[in-house]
Amino acid sequence: MQTHKTVSRDEWMAARRELLAKEKELLHATDAVKRQARELPWVKVDKAYVFDGPNGKETLSDLFAGRSQLIVKHFMLGPGWQEGCVGCSFGADQVEGSVVHLINHDVMFVAVSRAPYPEIAAYHERMGWKFKWVSSNGSDFNFDYHVSFTEADKARGKALYNFELHDYMSDEMPGYSVFYKDEAGDIFHTYSVFARGTEQIGGVYGFLDMTPKGRNEPPGGNLTSWVRRHDEYDEKAGDSCCHG
Hints:
This protein has helices at residues 9-38, 60-63, 86-103, 117-127, 141-144, 151-156, 204-208, 237-242; strands at residues 43-44, 50-53, 56-59, 69-74, 107-113, 132-135, 158-161, 164-167, 175-181, 187-194. The protein is α+β, with helices and mostly antiparallel strands. The mean pLDDT is 93.
């Protein structure tokens, strides 16, 4: 049943322009917040994390695969789970088209879950995704970045998630973390986002805006300086799944 007011084209245009002004204000405010995110201080990663994936055992440094920036998708798939979280899977479907552009713009993208790698591989194959996905099982990685929780957390009914102490919700939670590797090989944690903060992430610009180098393109967003049709890149998304 129609409930909206019906107006002339001129009246609609006036209303739309009024809304456009508010949309532009929100966009500029969002740009400012994203800039602040890139200006956050960094934390040096001193712990040696080892992951298991299609290439066998790999360190966090290995996961960069020659890039200076790494985005980790904290994918909710715990040990023994029969399938991945619905929300993480929904997000992964949206990510799939972005990965090829990221890996050809100095950003590696890797999903990480705490399930053993054979369990990850089975679900990865079922879903048909091409992005790289590795297991952090046996390491502290998920716990250190507050997306997996201990039995002690569960017993007390509280866990640190999204930078605050919350009532215990699940053994695994979603998010993204960003890392930078300098020319000396030192790695830094630069940014993380969790909960509803992940909802606007999935497109290429959404990912680039939270990396240290940002969009890293000429002023004005000239895509032709770096973007190619996805079948024209030297490295395809599937290459990143199975090669370092």
